[in-house]
Structures are given as C-alpha cells and as structure tokens.
Amino acid sequence: MGDEPIGEWLAQPDAREIELVKVLHALGDPVRLRLLKVYADGEQYSCAPGALGLDHLHKSTVSHHMRIMREAGVTSTRVVGRSRYVRLRRDDLDARFPGLLDALIKALP
Amino acid sequence: MGDEPIGEWLAQPDAREIELVKVLHALGDPVRLRLLKVYADGEQYSCAPGALGLDHLHKSTVSHHMRIMREAGVTSTRVVGRSRYVRLRRDDLDARFPGLLDALIKALP
DNA sequence: GGAGTTGTTTGATGTTTGTCAAACGATTCT
DNA sequence: AGAATCGTTTGACAAACATCAAACAACTCC
After folding, report:
1. Proximity of residue A82 CB to strand D below 7 A
2. Which residue in A7, A23, A99, A101 is a FRET match for B60, CA 20 to 30 A apart?
3. Given this model, what pLDDT does residue B4 score?
4. pLDDT for residue B36 is more than 80
C-alpha cells in the first residue's frame, strides 16, 4: 500500500550544464513550442500524441521531439511501468536563466 | 551640411507579425546567439565578419545569418552607401514579447 | 573611367532535421 | 503463456541548413 510508483529517470543534463543555445534550438520548432504550452501548467503528461494535441504525428515522431527537449534540459522524464511522465524543469530553468521561462510562456501564441 | 545619411531599410516583418517560434529558431544557433551578444548593447554594427568576432566565417555566411535574423524580426538593417548598419529591434521585441529579450541577454554565456 | 570596398546572390556540398514505418523491448492484463 | 499497451530505436527519405566559393551589384575613391 504505502508504496508509490516512483520509477526511474531518463538521462538528462545536469542543471548547471543546460546550454541556452540548445534550449532555444529545442524551442525553435513549431511542435516543440506547442509542447511547451502543454507543459506550462507544471503538470506531467504521458507521451501519447493524443494527450498532447499532436494527433497528426506518429508516436515515433513524438518520441523524437521528447528526446530533444529532454537532452536540451527543458523537460524531465520519469519512467513508471510502460508510461513516461514528462514535465517542465521549471526550477532548474528558472535558476539557470532567470525570467526566461516566464517570458517565453507569456509570449506563447 | 544638415543632411545625414539616412539610407533605406531592408525588408523586415512588421512588429506585430514577429513570430516567437521564428525568433527562437533564429537564436537557436551558436553563431546567431553570438550575434545577439554583439548587438545587446543597442549599438549598430556593420556586417564585416571582423567587426562581429566572426573572423572564421566567410562573408557570405555572415550575410546568410544576417538575413535569418532580419526575417525573423530580431534585427533591422539600414543601408547607407556600401555599408549595412544592423541593430537589435529592441523596442519591437519588448512590445511583442515583454521580458524576453532582457532574460535572453542576461542568460547569454 | 578604373580600382577597391561592402555586402548579396547563386550554386555546390555535406550535415542536420522532421517525418513515417517497421521492428523491438518492457510492462500489464487476461 | 499469450495478447495488448506504451514508448524507443533503427532505417529511409525529403527538406532545410550552414558553409564556402565565385560571380555580381552598388557605392566610393583615385
């Protein structure tokens, strides 16, 4: 009973090694900028295209975008069973680039 | 006498048509992010690679990057004689995406 | 007018990227 | 065990991209 499904974390850059140019490159794509909008509420989401408003994309394409976001340091991914729970690394990004995430989320179309 | 060299302006998107995803794509490149650092002081610069700390790049490559920045709405270019004077569109970007440019410039490596 | 300057444009080349499809791995359910 | 689910990995392919080189255009200076 008392055991929650904690799961493992997929590899991601250390908070201090997040590079601005990689973050901007990750977000400089229509699909991934839309993902930022999804994650902006701080909640975690699975990778299912339908759950992300990306029904027009193949699941492997979504997986590809997920990897780029994670390797850029924008998102973190927790593995529980078959599911992946992805969310914004808000604290890490705020610490590394103060004000950037807030400005970006406000600027979202 | 009283006449200053005003010159013409190269085509650029209207302030309200600047798209966030294009701005991020423009800045998600090592060379162009470095250019942002150059322009961060608000001054205008010529396109000479040497004047921009881009001595390792061919002049046509610099011209290519200039065009991407300008078409994304990041910079504006004034033509005076043989020279181009390029600078940040700080007012337009601040109006469109409040706080973004400040956060970006502070986050620059 | 001719030479030098400043940057653009076009073509070529190798790299990266976004996408899908198929195969696979791990997990969960029956 | 067998089947279904969730997501990753690999391969393939076209489009976009960064870069250089050469030709070009416009301007300035002698």
Report:
1. yes
2. A23
3. 53
4. yes
Quick one: tokens of B108? 């620059």
CA of B82 vs chain A CAs: smallest distance (Å):
32
> Under an 8 A CB cutoff, do B103 and A100 touch?
yes
d(CA A90, CA A75): 8
Place of tokens 């909008």: A37
Q: pLDDT of A54-96, one tens digit each?
A: 999 999 999 999 999 999 999 999 999 999 999 999 999 999 9
Closest CA–CA distance from residue A105 to any residue of chain B (Å): 10
Report percent pLDDT > 90 for chain B.
Answer: 89
Q: How far apart are CA B106 and CA A42, in angstroms?
A: 24
Lowest mean pLDDT among A45-49, A68-72, A84-88, B76-80: A45-49
Within-domain flag for B23: yes
Domain of B93? 14-107
A19 shares contact with chain B (CB less than 8 Å): yes
**What per-residue confidence (pLDDT) applies to B42?**
95
Cβ of A60 near strand D (under 7 Å)? The reply is yes
Closest residue, CA to C1' of D22? B60
Q: Domain containing B45 — which CATH number? A: 1.10.10.10
State whether the beta carbon of B64 lies below 7 angstroms from any atom of strand C. Answer: yes
- Burial letters for B11-38: b for 16+ Cβ neighbours within 10 Å, e otherwise? ebbeeeebebbbbbbbbbbebbbbbbeb
